[in-house]
Amino acid sequence: xxxxxxxxxxxxxxxxxxxxxxxxxxxxxxxxxxxxxxxxxxxxxxxxxxxxxxxxxxxxxxxxxxxxxxxxxxxxxxxxxxxxxxxxxxxxxxxxxxxxxxxxxxxxxxxxxxxxxxxxxxxxxxxxxxxxxxxxxxxxxxxxxxxxxxxxxxxxxxxxxxxxxxxxxxxxxxxxxxxxxxxxxxxxxxxxxxxxxxxxxxxxxxxxxxxxxxxxxxxxxxxxxxxxxxxxxxxxxxxxxxxxxxxxxxxxxxxxxxxxxxxxxxxxxxxxxxxxxxxxxxxxxxxxxxxxxxxxxxxxxxxxxxx
Length: 307
Ligand SMILES: [Zn+2]
What we know:
The protein is an alpha/beta fold. It has helices spanning 12-23, 41-53, 67-73, 94-105, 126-137, 157-160, 173-182, 190-193, 198-206, 210-224, 230-238, 242-262, 266-287, 294-305, and strands at 30-34, 80-83, 114-118, 143-149, 164-167. The chain has a 5-stranded parallel beta sheet, with helices on both faces. α4 (94-105) links the parallel β2 and β3. The chain binds zinc ion. Zinc ion binds at residues 54-56, 62-63, 65-66, 68-69.
């Protein structure tokens, strides 16, 4: 296994699939790597690129020694291209996709192969997705496209259907716990581990925003028992990053669904599930880089969640 991948034990089965596909010469032209945030899809994609471009790979593993491996490590490989939004939440525009495809059509410089990674795929607007679609219909020889998405359902269906879907699994809560402990994160609620990948939890721990999760859960409880006013809760959510606030609400709401089910309140659980959809809908919009009036969105969402 690649040394990068061996740092993330839950990726081992998928890495094995990759090695098999390369060995049997069955790697698709385009693969859509999807899974929850924090499962390490980006690291995995880069390890795949390194293995594909390495000058002396052994069983689809990069040697880590050759010029090609070195260039990839410093993000300077002429035959690898990483396309992502230039600004957070601004989306990936059609011109950027056209530039990437023009690059893809040129002959490789170092090796005989080229790898284009696009992430997150949800941020391609329709025009950009259609431009990419053309390439998938008429693939360039010796090129591999690795497309990364958190929610493949948000990707243009015609685009999705032309890719092979690879799911990056979420480790079990026990596996996540063990891995996070090796990174020095020990104070972690089990409910958090079922909704977020360990890399995201680690990043939030390092950024000091993991405590916010606890705060959101406490505030939500207070809001639901009418001890916290809607506007105050909304203000508090506005003070967080959109992604932290939405993740926090999602995890907290999931906990309420579990509690309702455990106490056999099926109707309540059903109602909570519908409300979770509203949270997920907002999350999808945020992921797609939609330009929203967040104070208004928070107020509207909390109105829906209100008991
Ligand atoms: Zn190498």
